[in-house]
Amino acid sequence: MKRAQRIRWIERAEWTGRIRWIERAEWTGRIRRIKQVKSVATFPLIMGIWLARVSVGRLPVC
């Protein structure tokens, strides 16, 4: 249920535009965890979110 809820939240946030706070946080530097992952993966946030959706719980979201 938690995984399903997280996936639903991700999809909803993507469509509703709540993911904007993630982009903002990236610019403000509030998301340090994603920055660490980004330094390793060097993929845009959208790609990371998409990968998280595909792996379904394998990658920790937020």
Structure characteristics:
single chain; about 60 residues; mainly alpha; globular; membrane
Structure characterization notes:
The chain has 62 residues and is mainly α. It has one domain (2-55). The protein contains four helices and no strands. It has helices spanning 2-16, 20-28, 32-41, 45-55. The two termini are 17 Å apart. The relative contact order is 0.15. The mean pLDDT is 65.
Number of strands: 0
Helix content: over 70%
**Low-pLDDT residue intervals, each spanning 5 or more residues:** none
- Largest sheet, if any? none
Going by helix content, strand content and strand pairing, the class is mainly alpha
Topology:
Layout: H1 2-16, H2 20-28, H3 32-41, H4 45-55
What's this entry about, in short?
With 62 residues, the chain is an all-alpha fold. It contains four helices and no strands. Helix content is 73%, strand content 0%.
